Amino acid sequence: MNFNTTAIHSHQAPEKEFGAVITPIYQTSTFAQQDAGVFNGYDYTRAGNPTRSVLEGVLADLEGGKWAYGFASGMGAMSTMALALFKPGDHIISGDDIYGGTFRFFTKIFAKYGVDIDFVDMANLSNIEDAIRPETKMIYLESPTNPLLKLVDLDAIIAMAQRKSILTCVDNTFASPYLQQPFDYGADIILHSTTKYIGGHSDVIGGALVVRDDEALANTIQFHQMSIGATPDPFASWLTLRGLKTLGVRMDRHSSNAMHLAQWLEQHDAIEDVIYPGLPSHPQHDLAKKQMGPRGAKGSAYGGMITLRVKGGEAEARQVLKQTKLFTLAESLGGIESLIEHPAIMTHASVDKNVRDAIGITDNLIRLSVGIEEVADLQADLDQAFAAIRQTAAC
Ligand SMILES: Cc1ncc(COP(=O)(O)O)c(C=O)c1O
């Protein structure tokens, strides 16, 4: 089955008892047993639940992996993976421009357990090669990165990791399985904040880990999922599953809206810089053409995230954030509605200012999550917000 068909039909045949077309919400914490220790696949919802199993099955199929595990949040997935796979003395190499919460987890929580983490600019392969040590257990990748939308070369980096028997985990939240397929390059694990494009409606928090084909790795993750308990409740699983059905259709529209806005923003006199992988001006546009887009149509869609720098500094950026009406000032991304945020003050406040400055998260940087509204309305909304900066400057 193709992507959109898989999203709607995989593991989702009508339910047997009454023929419900849509997967029921098995809103129960526990399950009756026929005899002590004898039960029908499920004994307790932390360990497993039929609604969650459907979500996990579809996610595995959409990523092209064998197993998927659902979590209560993306960070629930991340912390469970960390506890499952690493021990004191291990070393991780991570991209330097990753989601602020992941950076916080690595530096403020996980480092306490004796795991060493190096953050490197993954745009340059030799930075990764130089950081590899005998204790390196994993290369942790995010592409496109948050918030600077840098791309990492999945093919080259995963091949290098495989040569050295190092695990790779790709956070595929920004692209979603519709626009990027890390298992095609041999990644071992894919991580998602399903809160974002997969859920797609800003009404549920969730996460997932998907395993390509290593059964021992999958069993370890499943054991820790069940033992740690950062699992999604049945309703959260159901909401995520409902969102997931339209992922492909939404991603097409997010991408075409974002491409239109990025091209327009590039010509706008209030803007210093526009970062969007679909623009030829993006320093890694050639890699984006190769790596991003639906299977069989690479280079045709680049997602809904745009990062820009307004002319001026924090004051001008704050003006824009205050003035937009359709773009809601809020953290998060990937929902049907457009959001605007200021990484230095909001999502990446936990990254030290000197680190932010070094990697380019400047005070005039704004991140847009472009929704699926009518693009002309979104453009008009941004335009009136930029006009407000001009007026302030003129006063
Ligand atoms: C790329 C990325 N990974 C992981 C996370 C963490 O996900 P959650 O907020 O669902 O815990 C986020 C959240 O913004 C994210 O943007």
Q: Can you describe what's shown?
A:
The protein has 395 residues and is α/β, with parallel strands linked by helices. The protein has two domains: 3-244, Aspartate Aminotransferase, domain 2 (3-Layer(aba) Sandwich), CATH 3.40.640; 247-394, Aspartate Aminotransferase, domain 1, CATH 3.90.1150. 39% of the residues lie in helices and 15% in strands. The protein is built from 14 helices and twelve strands. The chain has helices at residues 3-9, 50-63, 74-85, 100-109, 125-131, 154-163, 176-179, 215-228, 234-244, 247-266, 285-291, 314-323, 353-359, 375-394; strands at residues 67-71, 91-95, 116-120, 136-142, 167-171, 189-193, 207-211, 271-275, 305-310, 328-329, 339-341, 365-369. The strands form two sheets. It has a seven-stranded mixed beta sheet with strand order 1-7-6-5-4-2-3, with helices on both faces. Strands 8-9-12-11-10 form a five-stranded mixed beta sheet, covered by helices on one side. Helix 2 runs parallel beside helix 9. The longest helix has 20 residues, at 247-266. The chain is globular and about 75 Å long. The mean pLDDT is 96. Residues 73-75, 99, 101-102, 142, 146, 171, 173-174, 193, 195, 205, 207 line the site of pyridoxal-5'-phosphate. Pyridoxal-5'-phosphate binds next to helix 3 and helix 4.
